[in-house]
Write a structure and sequence with these properties.
alpha/beta, 5-stranded parallel sheet, globular, about 375 residues, Rossmann fold, 2 domains, 13 strands, two-stranded antiparallel ribbon
């Protein structure tokens, strides 16, 4: 009788454990994995082994650039002269070329046609060619270095827009793209700025030596020492058997350890570095005599905040920037301002890149900023 009772208890416990394990497995299989997609831990042992032992041709992706990390393949704009090649083709040409733009995929115009980018709408509104030098997946730091490189090659316009998605604050402290986006190609590496005294220096030396094992070891050490998301990766959960433990660890992670891009607007080092990047952009404009426009494009979660009567995550940072440059010739444009439908700004409601509608809103924001600053294409020629 006692054995039967003990057997019944053991069976009940085992059945309960199997039921819990099955439930947590199904949770991760059907729902949790997609929700955790950007929070899964990268296996650093495998990552390091692959990086060091890959043949040189497999260490980098096809758009590799030793100075920038990667860049867009150039296409013909349809114009003669220094702006004959850029990231996008001009769908319509004007008699002057007064504006060029730099930034990430939201500046490049991912998922829309050439005649649906905000540069196209700006060109129509201002009757001038607006050159698109955006590059997908890059940070505002890479965009600034690309601008400096282009100016040295004679590619300069009277007005230069440095565009950035608000989420870019997470990219300026990142080297290994996979450690920020776990699902990204493990061969995407970017340099980064480091604060040295009162200035910032662009560290890209490790990317020039990837054809040697020692060079790849140097890159690995560079990542370990300076990549914010590499260090943070150690806190991320691993989804594996037993799934019950994985579930408990995941819950603990989201309750106590999780960091998202918007959290970095409260990080002293990240905001200081961001400020230094803006300073460098402004200093470049005074040295090279162009009108600088800093364009902040809201991430979908910023728009959700606005819809709920709250502020974008970057609002305090932006306010400090406005105060700092209030008496200087830096035009700061917040594309979240204005009366528009937040649900239509992106290709899907609060998801994906900007739609044609959203790009029209961005062009309107820039146009209104120029009008407010009393800048016309006639006055800047």
């Amino acid at each position: 009788m006692r054995k039967r009772k003990l057997f019944s208890i053991v069976l009940s416990v085992l059945t309960t454990l199997v039921l819990i394990e099955t439930t947590t497995y199904l949770f991760f299989k059907m729902y949790g994995s997609s929700r955790l997609e950007y929070h899964l831990k990268v296996d650093d042992h495998i990552f390091k082994k692959n990086l060091i032992n890959y043949p040189p041709a497999q260490v980098v992706n096809r758009n590799f650039d030793a100075l920038l990390g990667w860049d867009e393949a150039l296409v013909k704009t349809g114009l003669p002269g220094p702006h004959a090649f850029a990231s996008r083709t001009l769908s319509k040409q004007h008699s002057t070329t007064l504006i060029s733009t730099y930034g990430d995929s939201f500046t490049f115009g991912q998922s829309v046609n050439d005649d649906e980018t905000w540069q196209h709408y700006m060109g129509d509104k201002l009757n001038t060619n607006v050159i698109n030098y955006g590059a997908r997946g890059t940070g505002v730091d890479q965009a600034l270095i690309k601008l400096e490189k282009n100016i040295n090659q004679g590619k300069k316009t009277k007005i230069i827009v440095l565009g950035m998605l608000s989420e870019t604050i997470a990219r300026i402290v990142n080297i290994s793209q996979q450690h920020y986006w776990a699902t990204t190609d493990s061969r995407s590496f970017k340099p980064l700025f480091q604060i040295v005294g009162e200035k910032i220096e662009w560290h890209f030396d490790p990317l020039k030596k990837l054809d040697t094992i020692n060079g790849r070891k140097e890159l690995m050490l560079f990542i370990e020492q300076h990549d914010f998301w590499f260090k943070y990766n150690k806190l991320r959960p691993v989804i594996t058997f037993p799934y019950t433990f994985s579930f408990i660890k995941s819950v603990n992670y989201f309750m106590h350890d999780v960091k998202r891009w918007n959290d970095l607007y409260a990080d002293k080092y990240a905001t200081k570095l961001f400020n230094k990047i803006v300073e460098r952009f402004y200093s470049l404009s005074t040295k090279e005599n162009f009108i600088p426009i800093l364009l902040i494009i809201p991430e979908p979660r910023d728009l959700k905040n606005l819809l709920q009567g709250d502020k974008p995550f970057y609002s305090e940072f932006l306010l400090n920037l406005r105060n700092k440059y209030s008496n200087k010739d830096l035009l700061i444009i917040d594309a979240s301002k204005g009366d528009f439908d937040y649900t239509r700004f992106n290709r899907f409601p609060f998801q994906g890149h900007t739609s044609a509608y959203g790009n029209k809103q961005i062009s309107e924001s820039i146009y209104n900023g120029l009008v407010e600053a009393k800048l016309t294409m006639q006055t800047v020629q």
